[in-house]
Every structure is written in structure tokens, then in C-alpha cells.
Amino acid sequence: MPAFSRLVRFLAKDGRTYYGDAILPAGVSDIAKTTRARVIKGDIFGKHDVTEQVADVRLLLAPLAREDVKTVRCLGLNYEQHAKESGMPLPKYPVLFYKPVTSLAGPFDNVPVAAPAQEVEGLDYECELVAVIGKEAKDVPESKALDYVLGYAVGDDISHREWQLKRGGGQWSLGKGFDGWAPFGPAIVSANLIKDPQALRITTKVNGQVVQDSSTKDMIFGVAKTISFLSQGTTLLPGDLIFTGTPQGVGSGRKPPLWLRDGDLVEVALEGVGTCVNKVEHIKSRPKL
Fold this sequence. Notes:
This protein is 8% helix and 38% strand. By secondary structure, the chain is mainly β. A hairpin with a 2-residue loop joins strand 14 (201-206) and strand 15 (209-215).
């Protein structure tokens, strides 16, 4: 099991980037508000030590460096009430899709919206519990599946419904895989601290207004069942991320739809972990030479 409790990756005030174990101020539970961390030395997925060296945090980054992430798996329609608001039958098996590692971003990064995604409305938010695999897993029984979890974060599966459902040729990844469309963090909380990932409040705010407010107990396929299922005949590697689906309240499920616009501020939060705060930013087209 990891030596850390709350893994953060951060730019320190000394200008260097570290992995660290967040030191929370008294009375604070949201790791996004951490200002200091004990520096971690070694392999996050192997032998590592939480040192006595304390560094001041300038900026929290994505809690895993891109080179430490192997695969980003995601589940669709994995909350019962979300499936109902989508007008879809409850799935008999987990609905799996993938995001590229280039979609990953930090807990305070802007969400860049490239020109193709500006052509038509449809930009949406999805708060999600993110499970991080800590050791190699294959053919794992559900009863042992949580033993393979390094920890948990919160993420936002940013999606463009037009590109996802109408322009993607039947595949969802095109509408979900743009650069920076999977911010996550603000930390990875050790599975030692979160014993039951199916008992956590999960929320989204857009410009300060609550738009999603649910519990991970509404998952159709819980974390243990998901890991067991995905590991059958397929090896899960340390550093694999699993975005486990979103609850009801997404913009596309509202009447009229609530689409994200340039400048909107999106906050996704998970109990026991904290908050990612990301601003939507339309990228201006580069002039043609």
C-alpha cells in the first residue's frame, strides 16, 4: 500500500515540480486548498518515502504526470438516474470508452475548446469519481478488486454531445477526447482513507450554481465490480485511470439544455477528496498564412 495519504503533484514556490503528501490546514478537507506538502521520493507505484522535507505549493498540477499514466478508461451510463435522464435502458455490462492521455489536465487548468468544438453548441460537464490503479491486475475477483486501487480523485469528463453522438461515427471518444478535456485531481486520496468508494457525495457547480448533486451509491457498476470486469482477460497497469461515470444533472439532460459557454467556471467535487475548478476557454483560430 502507498506510504502517502493524499498524493499531490505540484509546482513549488522554489520553481520545481514535486510529488508530495498534502498537508491540510486545520479544519480544511478540500485538498485543493492545500498550501504545503511533504516531498515524496521514489516510485509512486513502487517503493517511495514521504520525507520530512516540506515544500510550499504554488500550483497544484494533475496528480499524475503524463508519463506516469498508462491508459484512461471511462464508463458511460453508469449511474441509474443518469441513464434514465438520457432515455437509455440500464446497461447489462459496463459501457467502456477511452480518452487519450492528452485529454488529461490539472485541477485548475482552463478547458480549451478548439475551433471544431465551437462550430455548434453541445459542450457539457460530467463530474466523476476517478479510480487509479496501483498495481498490475488481471482476472481479479470482485472481492479483491479494491486491493488494486492506489487511490481516488475527482474528474470532469468534458464532452461535446454533437461530436460525441452525431459526428463520431457511432464512437463516443471523438466528442470526449479533445486536449484538456479530462481535468482531474486535486489529489489522489489513498484507498487506506477511502474505505468505501460507493458512499461519497459528488457534485458539479457551473458559475456557482449546483447542477449535479448525487452519491456514488447510485452507480450501476461499483468500483470493485468495474475493476473486476475490466481485468478479465485484460491487464490493468499501475497508472491506469478509470473515470467511473457521471450522475444525473448533465446539461444535455435538461430542458432546455444547459451548454457550457466561453468563460463558464465549472467546479466538480468529491467528498473526501476536494474540488477541481476549471474555466472554459474558447481557443481563437490561428490566422492562415
